[in-house]
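Minutes, project check-in
Item: structure for the 223-residue chain
Input as provided by the requester:
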Amino acid sequence: MDTSALKSWRRSERERLIAARLQLDAATLDEWRRRMDGYLERSFPGLARTRLAFCWPIKHEYDARHLAKTLRERGALTALPVVVAPKTPLAFREWHPGVELARGALDIPYPVNSPEITPDAVLLPMNGWDAQGYRLGYGAGFFDRTLASLAKKPVVIGVSYELARMETIHPQPWDIPVDYLVTERGVYRRDPEGLAYLGVPEAGDDPSALSSPVCYAGDIKRD
C-alpha cells in the first residue's frame, strides 16, 4: 500500500471507529471506564508515584480524569499534552483542578502557565489498535514524534475499547507500539510476538507479574 493509499485507508478506518464509539451510550461508557480504572489501579500500583501524562477525553474516549484524581490523592503528579507547533513533539504540562486551561487543536483543553514535566508513564487513547500493539490515532503523528524525541521513553499504556480492535494498522517505520493495553476486557502486554492477553486483574494479584517498571515505581522517588 503506497503512502497516499495508506493515508486514505487510515482516514476511513479512523472515521469508522470513531463513529462506532460515538454510538456507545453513557451507561456503557461509565461501566467500561470503571472497569478500566480498576484494572489500571490493580495492575499498575506504581502509577501513584509517577509523573503521569494522560489525555483529555474527546469523542467518547476512555475518561482518565477519574483515575488521575485517585492517583493524585496517592502522590502522583498528572500532566496533559500541549501542541507546541505542527509536526513538532508535544510538551507536557502539569495539570490538576485549578490550573488554567485553554482550548487547542480538536477543541481539546490544555494547561497554560503550569510547569513542563517529562512523564514517567503515559495513558494513551487509541482510535484503533492491532495485534502488535500499534495505534491508530488522529493522523497528525504527535505522539509517535514525541515518544521518539524523549531521551528516556515513558511506559506507554494504551487505553481503548475492544470494538477498536483491528487486524493491522499497516504500521510504518515511525509508528511506535504501546507497552501495555487496557480495555474493558482486561490487560494486554506487548511481547516480541505481539500483544498477549493477561486477563482481568483481581484484588490480591501480584502486579509484578506484568514485569513493568511502572509496577515498581513506588520504590523510587519521583525526582
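Outcome recorded: The chain has four helices and 13 strands.
No further action items on this chain.
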